[in-house]
Amino acid sequence: xxxxxxxxxxxxxxxxxxxxxxxxxxxxxxxxxxxxxxxxxxxxxxxxxxxxxxxxxxxxxxxxxxxxxxxxxxxxxxxxxxxxxxxxxxxxxxxxxxxxxxxxxxxxxxxxxxxxxxxxxxxxxxxxxxxxxxxxxxxxxxxxxxxxxxxxxxxxxxxxxxxxxxxxxxxxxxxxxxxxxxxxxxxxxxxxxxxxxxxxxxxxxxxxxxxxxxxxxxxxxxxxxxxxxxxxxxxxxxxxxxxxxxxxxxxxxxxxxx
Length: 258
Ligand code: SAH
Fold this sequence. Notes:
This protein has helices at residues 15-24, 57-69, 128-145, 175-187, 199-209, 227-253, and strands at 8-12, 26-33, 36-43, 46-52, 75-84, 94-102, 123-125, 160-167, 194-196, 213-221. The protein starts with 7 loop residues before the first strand and ends in a 5-residue tail after the last helix. Helix 1 packs parallel to helix 6 (227-253), helix 2 (57-69) runs parallel beside helix 5 and helix 3 packs across helix 6. By secondary structure, it is an alpha/beta fold. Strands 5-9-8-6-10 form a 5-stranded mixed β-barrel. The longest helix is centred in the last third of the chain and has 27 residues, at 227-253. The structure holds S-adenosyl-L-homocysteine. S-adenosyl-L-homocysteine (SAH) binds next to strand 5, strand 9 and strand 10.
C-alpha cells in the first residue's frame, strides 16, 4: 500500500531567502491563494510547497493556516533573520528555535503578562525531531559555507544556538528597547536569544493543527540603534545564502516520504 506523501512547507520571511529555493524547485507550479503565491513542486524528490510568510504575526498566521488547510502541509519549516538579544548571540550566528513567546502579548491583569489568553501558556514549543534535523542541517550548511564570506564579527566560526525566540509586531532597532525587552522577558522566566516578527504566530497555528514545526533564524542585527543599517546588506549578502544551504541540507535529510 502506498504511504501518503508528506508535504513539507518551507516558509521564508523574505523574497531574497526564497529565491534560491525557487531556482532548485522541480516541476514548479504557482497557485495564488489569499493574495499570496504558493509554489508547489519537488526538492530532492520530496513534495514541498514554498511560501513567503509576509511580515508580522497576523500575516504569518494566515500564510501558515493556508499552507495547512489548502496545501495539505504536514510539517512546516521556517527560515528568516532576527535580531540577537541573548548576550552571546552575534551577527552571523544561527538560532534554531526550541520555543516561541510573543513579547507584545499583554492581557494583564486578566491574564499574566505574555500568556496567550485561553491557552493557559506563554510559550509554544517546536517539534523536537524536526528541530534536531534542522539543527544538524544548520551545522552541515555552515560547514559547507564556512570561509565563503567574511562576516563583520571577524570570527571564523558561526555559532548555532538553540533556545527561545520572541516574536512581536515591532522591528526592534534601539539598544535600550532591546535591553528592556530582554530584561522583562527574563524576569518573567522567558529569556530570549533573538527577536523577530513571525515565528510565535506560526508556532501557535502549528500547535492548533498538531503539525510539526521547526524554525531557524540567522542573526542579522543586534536589535540596537544600527539594526536598520545592518539589515538589508546582511539579508542579500549572507542570510539568503545561509537559508539556501541549510534548507537544501534539511530537505535532503528528511525521512523518505515515499
Ligand atoms: N526591509 C524589509 C522589512 C524587514 S522587517 C523589507 O523591505 O521587506 C524585518 C524582518 O526581519 C521581519 O521578518 C523580522 O522577523 C526580522 N527581523 C530581523 N531583525 C529584527 C529586529 N531587530 N526586530 C524585529 N524583527 C527583526
